Amino acid sequence: MPLFKYYSPKKYNFAAIAQHQLFFCRPSGLNDPYDTTTVNINAFPGFCKKLNIKDRMFRKTLDEHTICCFSKDDKPDNLHLWAFYALNYEGFSVEYDENVLRNPFPSMIAPLPLLDVDYRDRPINLDGDDSFIIYETSNAGPRVPFREGSVMDCINEYILYGDNPKTDGLFLELHLQKQSAIWKIENECRLIVGNVILSNLNSIYRKYFRKVCGRGLLLTIPEKAIKSITVGYRTSDKNKRRLKKIASKLNVKLFQATPYVEDCNWTVRLDDISTKTNKP
Asked: Which one of 21, 131, 183, 237 has the lowest number of neighbouring Cβ atoms within 10 Å?
């Protein structure tokens, strides 16, 4: 399944693509305040009391994941994402290979979890006994559950054993739930780096991840993870030349996205503007 990420025309974004890097931010750094786990938890005093949310180690665990967001689609033609994240077509979009992102380097103990966002009408009730299912992102066949359970089961497991897969699944759900009416148009999935990697950044994972000023991590991915680049029709000539050079170095196609009306539908026209050295 093609995965797309939309970028504003900032210098650090061009540098990241040229160096085939992805930025993973902590939940508190995402643009939706409800992505912050503590915002979702503080509204439920019963849950906070049972899990002793004031405990320092527990609060550290809540923000101990880092996240990189993508949009699932056949092509980079999401009008909302071009307007909202790519600065009204002044930025660009990058297509990534899903399988390479899951296994970005050879010493992986297990694939990085690539998980669908859970679009909901209301947040999960942590003082009730709501259930949840987290699905792996998949391009074929039935959806595969990654974690599932109920709030009460997760609370009981945490009280008995501390950190455990069930409670970790609930924490993941709090990083994945989004208000359906506002965000469903993004068709989002998230690549998540969890405690196993974060606790080994100074050893086996040191050469792949770099900490960024306490805000998150930069992951260097294989060049083959990038499949194409698309500029917006309002991208400056200077930035188009810069992205053409990057596309040529990566040997991928370069497209331009232009707003278009076709068959009485608002859409985006994609024109191939690759250099001659790109793949046919």
From this structure: 237
pLDDT single digits (tens) 186-215: 999 999 887 666 666 666 777 778 888 778
The two beta strands, 118-120 and 177-179, are parallel
Question: What's the CA gap between 165 and 168, in Å, rounded?
Answer: 5
Q: SS3 of 145, please?
A: strand
Given a cut of 70, whether residue 279 has pLDDT beyond it is no
Q: Residue 87 — pLDDT band, cuts 50, 70, 90?
A: very high
Check if the beta carbon of residue 1 is closer than 8 Å to that of residue 136. no
Non-local CB neighbours of 228 within 8 Å, separated by 6+ positions: 94, 95, 247, 252, 253, 254, 255
Scored b (16 or more CB within 10 A) or e, 130-154 reads bebebbbbeeeeeeeebbebebebb
Residue type for 156, please?
A: N
CB-count burial class (<10 Å; 0-12, 13-18, 19+) for 265: exposed
Residue 16 token pair: 């990241």
pLDDT digits (tens, 9 = 90+) for 131-168: 999 999 986 667 889 999 999 999 999 888 877 788 88
The helix or strand, by DSSP H or E, that contains position 16, with its residue range, turns out to be: helix 11-18
The phi, psi pair for 82, rounded to 5°, reads: -65, -40
Q: Which of 213, 216, 215 is nearest to 197 (CA)?
A: 216
H-helix or E-strand spanning residue 83: helix 79-84
